[in-house]
Specification:
The chain is mostly beta strands. It is 0% helix and 51% strand. Strand 5 and strand 6 form a beta hairpin. The protein is globular and about 40 Å long. The termini are far apart. The relative contact order is 0.33.
């Protein structure tokens, strides 16, 4: 069993920045992909960014150029740096760890990001 714990969510003004953290209970393998997802009220959960050891992260079009995913495997932690935040970025942000070849993975409990206009 793998545990993931997100933190760093907060209330910020539009144009501000936040850094989310996803602490993983074990070393992140080269076979693992860690994804950052978000879910706004009344909307489906969507993938925001995905990162695998040694590869360039992938981003949703809506956050390209504003969000940056990174990994510190010495700390078993994945980060999501969010700049130039917009009100539409408001959501609960989750991280997910999925082993290559598997359809499902492990989820954290989520962290709330609120952006005021």
């Amino acid at each position: 069993q793998v545990q993931l714990v997100e933190s760093g969510g907060d209330l910020v003004q539009a144009g501000g920045s936040l850094r989310l953290s996803c602490a993983v209970s074990r070393r992140i393998s080269v076979l693992d992909t860690v994804g950052w997802y978000r879910q706004a009220p009344g909307k489906e959960r969507e993938l925001v960014a995905a990162i695998t050891t040694g590869d360039t992260p992938n981003y949703a079009d809506s956050v390209k150029g504003r969000f940056t995913a990174s990994m510190d495997n010495a700390e078993y932690t994945v980060y999501l740096q969010m700049n130039s935040l917009k009100p539409e970025d408001k959501a609960v942000y989750y991280c997910n760890l999925r082993r290559r070849g598997f359809l499902s993975g492990y989820w954290g409990q989520g962290t709330q990001v609120t952006v005021s206009s």
